[in-house]
Specification:
The chain is an all-alpha fold. The protein has eleven helices and no strands.
Amino acid sequence: MNFLAHIYLSGDNELVQIGNLMADGIRGKRYDEFPPDVRTGILLHREIDTFTDAHPIFRESTKRLHSQYHHYAGVIVDVFYDHFLAHNWALYSTEPLEDFVARFYDTLERHYDLLTDRTRDMMPPMIRHNWLLSYRDVDGIARIMTQMDHRTGNVSGMRNCVGELLEYYEEFGTEFRVFFEELRTFCRQKLPLL
């Protein structure tokens, strides 16, 4: 899952949300350097990634992309799934997506001192280009994928994957809905144990 899903799956605790967002850049047991709730978010992120990578539905989605995008297929599906979460947000939250996103950006700014350097560097373009809200539209996904492709030196070809998103839109959407219900249940059970 990508940024929006990780934040959403953290529940209402701002520090858990922050930890979940930052987790990719925190290796090994470095999570011990953070306050307990941030640490919980980091550990939840790892649990989500493990659950996702091993899930047969997620693997089915990546298989559709593997021949063209190889090891980037999982990254692409993460973003596609965030699109379906954002696009169908009202099914998952009573809070409008715009409000959720604005509140999270405010959370990042209020807890700036807790953020890793990597997250601090990511914040300005994330907020300026409103990454979390831009997942909602296919044009936003196209922009994000172009930026991600650029970060790989344009070798991943991710800028082209919107074609597959549109071609297999119903399939990806159905896979997301079934998978995400299972992931939400998993997180509700796992979060109190972390």
